[in-house]
């Protein structure tokens, strides 16, 4: 009787969404953060090693972000870094902000003991108008970027194999001397610098190396996705779209 009433009351085009909502209500939600809601297994959140790494990085979040949480996105980054830690090549982060994710990664893979360098590239004060569109700059202002350079220097000063590279990409790309890259993270929220970084580092990324796109599937970042898809097609590779909003390439 109730099912019959629902079918009559809800327009047909909305029934799939209604069924999805009903499924979530009938099952235990295991994860509800960062635009991702699911009932699938999320046991990784109970892993002590990950929990410790997440806490180290989460403590660096700007106060303006409030109590925002992003465990699964962080877990993907830690997984990718763990994979990359076992092959030759350095790590490069393009878009650092306070260094939250990088601090998590360093803790998770014990990066201080690895024979690698980790290059953290950023203006450390938000987007650069010279390489950002008007729409990208508008989004930058809403995200509340501030000058965090001194804070980031303090965060990573205990790690001699971590190097900060200050300034806008592409200007600073030649300051990374590595000939082999195992892990490249792209998270600058604007198209031109992200494409420039991909073009510059691609040939240096080793076979099995990881490229992680932070904004790939998020609403409002469609221009970045189109640019990255075009780059991937040109290189005859594909980007794995993840439900966390990230994109992932494992270089052949």
Key attributes of the depicted protein:
252 residues, alpha/beta, Rossmann fold, 2 domains, two-stranded antiparallel sheet, 9 helices, 9 strands, disordered N terminus
Task: State the gist of this model.
It is built from nine helices and nine strands. The protein has 252 residues and is an alpha/beta fold. The strands form two sheets. The protein has a seven-stranded mixed beta sheet with strand order 5-4-3-6-7-9-8, sandwiched between helices.
Overall pLDDT confidence: 89
Q: Quote the beta fraction.
A: 15-25%
Give the SSE order as H and E letters: HHEEHHEHEHHEEHEHEE
Based on the structure given, which CATH architecture of the largest domain is correct?
3-Layer(aba) Sandwich
Strand order of the largest sheet: 5-4-3-6-7-9-8
Shape: globular
């Amino acid at each position: 009787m109730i099912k019959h009433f629902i079918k009559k009351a809800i327009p047909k085009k909305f029934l799939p969404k209604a069924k999805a909502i009903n499924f979530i209500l009938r099952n235990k939600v295991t994860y509800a953060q960062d635009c991702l809601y699911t009932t699938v297994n999320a046991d990784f959140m109970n892993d002590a090693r990950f929990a410790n790494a997440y806490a180290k990085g989460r403590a660096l979040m700007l106060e303006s972000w409030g109590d925002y949480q992003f465990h699964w996105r962080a877990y993907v980054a830690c997984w990718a870094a763990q994979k990359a830690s076992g092959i030759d090549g350095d790590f490069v982060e393009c878009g650092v902000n306070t260094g939250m994710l990088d601090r998590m990664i360093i803790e998770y893979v014990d990066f201080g003991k690895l024979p690698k360098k980790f290059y953290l590239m950023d203006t450390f004060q938000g987007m650069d108008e010279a390489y950002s569109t008007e729409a990208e700059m508008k989004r930058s202002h809403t995200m509340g970027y501030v000058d965090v350079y001194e804070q980031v220097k303090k965060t990573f000063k205990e790690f001699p194999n971590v190097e900060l590279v200050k300034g806008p990409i592409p200007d600073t790309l030649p300051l990374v001397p590595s000939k082999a890259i195992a892990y490249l993270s792209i998270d600058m929220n604007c198209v031109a610098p992200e494409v420039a970084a991909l073009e510059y580092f691609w040939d240096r990324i080793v076979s099995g190396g990881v490229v992680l796109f932070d904004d790939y599937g998020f609403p409002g970042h469609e221009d970045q996705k189109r640019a990255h898809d075009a780059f991937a097609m040109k290189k005859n590779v594909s980007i794995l779209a993840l439900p966390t909003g990230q994109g992932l390439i494992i270089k052949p």
